[in-house]
Amino acid sequence: MRADGETRAARRRPPRHGRAVLACLTAALCASLITAIPGFDRFHPIDEDILLLVRQIVAPRDTAPDASPVAVVAITPETFTAPGLSGIPRILWTDQMAKVQAKVLEAGATVFAWDVILQNSAAKSMTGILGGRVDLDAGAERALRRLDRDLLIGMKTYGRDQGRVVLGYADLAQGPVLPHQGLRQMIGRGSALHSVNAYVDPDGIVRGVPLVAPTDDGTEHVFFALEVARRHSGLDHAWSPPDGFEFGGRRVPVLAETGSGTNMLVNFDPSPGAVPSFTFHDILACDDAEYLRRAFEGRAVLFGFVTDLEDRKLMSNRFVRHADFDGAPIACDGSPAPVAAIARNTESGVYLHAQAVRNLLDGDAVARPGTGIRLTAAFALALAAAGVAAFRRPPVALAATVGLIALYGVIAGIVFADGTVLPLTDPGAAALLALGGMIGFRFVTADQERRQVRNTFSQYLDRKVIEAMIDAGDVPELGGESRELSCFFSDIEAFSSISEKMGPPELVAFLNEYFKVIGRAIESHGGIIERFLGDAVCSVFGAPVRDENHAANAVRCALAIDRGLAAAQDRFDVPEGRVVRTRIGINTGFMTAGNVGAERRKTYTVMGDSVNLAARLESVNKQYGTLLMAGEDTVTATGGLFEWRMIDRVRVVGRDTPVGLYEPLGEASTVAADVLALRDAYEAALRQFQSGDFAGARAAFQTLADRGDMASRKAVARCDARLADPPPPGWDGVTDLTKK
């Protein structure tokens, strides 16, 4: 093996530059071409959804509601309980709808567009309801017919005569859902009847509206939003597939430039109040001409539902949650807008068309990027990620790549302000693919010495220590750090009497089987074996890899070893059928951890008073008849995760500070009731002992000893010793141990 300094220098040396550059170019090219594979384009539509969210975070539009050319009059949940409407079936609101339409148009609105479809007249609906129940005379029938009179007159006056009303219909697979015949006749037999259908992407999300489509008679059908924009502006459109679509002489980015129709992606503005919204019932009750003029003059007004359930869709603004009527103007009566209590990710359909009208008028509809732009962006970001991965460690390269993707996303969000979409999914996926490719390249061709380090040290250090050493980018150095850790020492009970009756081969085979149980438990609980001392094991938790739960994991490991040894007795093959048990002492505290040793041979170890105390606690088990013992700092560090039995409070040899001795009984809520009852009785007897009532404590301990509790038997002996040799006056209840 090379000298230590040479090894580190070789490991830090990057791949040869010429080979690395070629590898970067290859990885970037392959990664970008992968994103062009058919089927990958199914992820493209989500780019607009993410960009809309990013734009709203980094560069939100400062939309002035007063400048909006579009407004909405909405039927809201409050409408159904408003004066003049409460208790009246919605089918009978035709008179009120006529009044609202007249108020809006008389206030100066350019067009009143219906995103509400009245399939049946009020007269027909009521006739259907009453006809089978009561006999209607001629006067009643005339009264019913008058229910639609004002609305029909309004359609003729404002629609057929003035061309300021647009009616919507829905074109469904089972057939069209049309306004009733009376409305169609009065407005001009379809001249103002336009589909309110939306454009739905393959993933089921609404992201746009159709604009035009050919009809069977060789003409074209103009859809709802385009017709509203035409009526409002007086501008016309030109559609000549596959050349493109224009509105008012300005090119509009569209999808599906074919003879079957064309769709426009909507560039949503989720700013509060971007589309001024008014409630139907407030406008119905409003007699303030100046308010109505300010609200509607010069605007295209869309009439629709903004309720909790009706006509709501997931649209490309789904990641920007908002409450209905957030930012809406003050009502005519001076009350605040009825802002919904819950922010939703679904949008009412009327706003889809309102935003589409704005896009047509402002010329900022969404333009999806072509294949060339997608491949260029994917290659550029993939090349940057590959370059970072070529000369930096994988964690650093991953963090840098994520940062590059995030920075690119922020830039794309800002660029999206005018509806220009920079691809997100393709460059992001290409960058991650290139990163993975370059890491693989380095692993195969440039990190051979890292594997050599791993193979060399695996015979001497725990695997986790080696991985931590490699991730840190250096072999262990002399020195260390001090931090809170947990460690335990274990030792086989009565090992001398077991080993003296075994030959060397049998003893080695036994210890190997024993250490399998110990090692697997330590590894599975995040610890490392710091060293072997004959049959003893020192284990550390919380270093070198940090673990905030090191104390709890050390205790769980000790309990697991106790269970594992009990289950493995038939594999040990010890003389005379002896039971193999191990004593464990656990302690938590500040320790010095580091790599200690000579230049060519080092070991990872922990040192300090807390380590020494763990060793003392292991040996204390002998004097107290226990197998598992922990210090009070471990008990404190584990909180209420375990049930404990306090065994005693002692001063161990070589340490003046008293320490509480605790036996772990098991995970909280898993310990049997009889074990807890014995624990409580033992601790009650211990309190008698510590208060100086040795006779009373002896009697209580003897009762528990008769039930087979070894710790209580040892306590009886300590009581006898105190009765024979009482402590001096003022004794603090602490037992001074004289043996290690």
Explain the overall architecture.
- The protein is an alpha/beta fold and 740 residues long.
- Helices cover 44% and strands 20% of the residues.
- The strands form five sheets. Strands 18, 19, 20, 21, 22, 23, 24, 25 and 26 form a nine-stranded mixed sheet that branches. Strands 1, 2, 3, 4, 5, 14 and 15 form a seven-stranded mixed sheet that branches. Strands 6, 7, 8, 12 and 13 form a five-stranded antiparallel sheet that branches.
- Helix 19 packs across helix 20.
- It is elongated, with a radius of gyration of 41 Å.
- The protein starts with a helix and ends with a strand.
What portion of residues belong to β-strands?
A: 15-25%
Q: Count the helices. How many?
A: 26
**Rough outline:** elongated
N- and C-termini, Cα separation: 43 Å
Mean pLDDT, to the nearest integer, reads: 86
Strand segment count: 26
The helix fraction, in percent, is 40-55%
Structural class: alpha/beta
As a whole number of angstroms, the C-alpha radius of gyration is 41 Å
Question: In this structure, how is the largest beta sheet organized?
Answer: 9 strands, mixed
Low-confidence parts, pLDDT < 50 over ≥5 residues? 1-16, 132-136, 474-478
